[in-house]
Fold this sequence. Notes:
Elements: E1 54-58, E2 68-72, H1 149-162, E3 165-166, H2 177-193, H3 196-202, E4 204-205, E5 208-209, E6 211-214, E7 234-241, E8 244-253, H4 259-271, H5 287-296, E9 298-300, H6 304-309, H7 315-319, E10 322-324, E11 330-332, E12 338-340, H8 346-359, H9 370-379
Helix pairs in contact: 1-2, 2-4, 3-4, 4-8, 5-9
Amino acid sequence: MAQSGPSDSNEQPEAATEGSLALSLKLGAAGIVFFAAIFGAVAIFAGGSDPDTRVSAYTLPPTVLGVSTQPARDTDTPTSRPTDTRTPVTSSISTTPAIIPATGNPVFPTNTQPPTPTALSTATGPSLSTPTPGTASPTPPIATPTPGSAVADLVAQIQNDFGVRVLTDGQDWGTDEQRQLRNLGAVRTALTSMPNNVIAAIVAGDGGALTFLSNNAGRTEAGWQPYGDRAANYYSNEDRGQGGTFAANQIVLQTGSTAQTIAHEMSHAYQMRDMGPGQYVEALLTPEMKSFMAATGWTQLISDEELRANANQSWSQINAFFEYDGRDLSYINEFGTGVTLYAPNPIEGYAEAAGLYYAHSDGTTLPQWPEYWDWFSANVG
Length: 381
């Protein structure tokens, strides 16, 4: 059965500025374009009524997993969409309605695409705005006020209940206590929404405890910015600092993301639970992903050996190795707006559908996609 968290229906739509984007199995930014050239991965729940103006992204960093792009609902200063050399696409699992610009064409909040995948060996593939291991220059954390007692209590509760880490020092969970509680509440909602076996599989691993960060610079705990200095949502199983590259288990969120986006990124963490740092492409070859592809209409156009040999290529190239012949992934969100899931490849298609299935808001009617929901029920929980 799909589990839904607390309703996000009280959230008000916010304006989203356009720009270009990047990657994620960080998994980063996407949109209404169904087959885009990028790969991505999860965001936080916002439950307040204050409109926001920031856009976040879905994806995997160059060696990070899935950046998800949900419009953030907690920042006072608008930012443009993250940029990338890849083709921009608009994302859609967001609960924010489309914006109608002067042209009359709807523009949906965007996701970030995944960074260039890392080769399956110890070599790292090329990536955008990614420091070279051993020569990284981490950005300093932002100065943040000491959380109030209510915020500190909520953080402690989340950490104790789920065995995860929630960083507040140097992070931005909101400009005031109300927003901080709302945005941290999204993390709790996403954790509660996911099946217990998923939580058990991702809360700890070779990269340590699953760690949640929130900032509008796309910055990991070590200060790495795989998508450059911009807001992005993504999962990464590696981090980079002055000492080089090392295993990690992090979900980086843009301030004010929704529970559905966070669930998207947690799904990326689940997909990568047995993968080595940066080995995102290898996850496409697991029996689990093969089963998902067969059930939902994906075809792999090259052999497994050829895919492995191309594991250090750009995500746009990886995407070209797969073809989707399944149903149109459009639905109506809680605002009555038509949106389309971002599915440039099977990993993103999986995470997008999982975020919707497990953490859609109470105001969104789950679309009739039985092959997707039956697969998740039988294979994930």
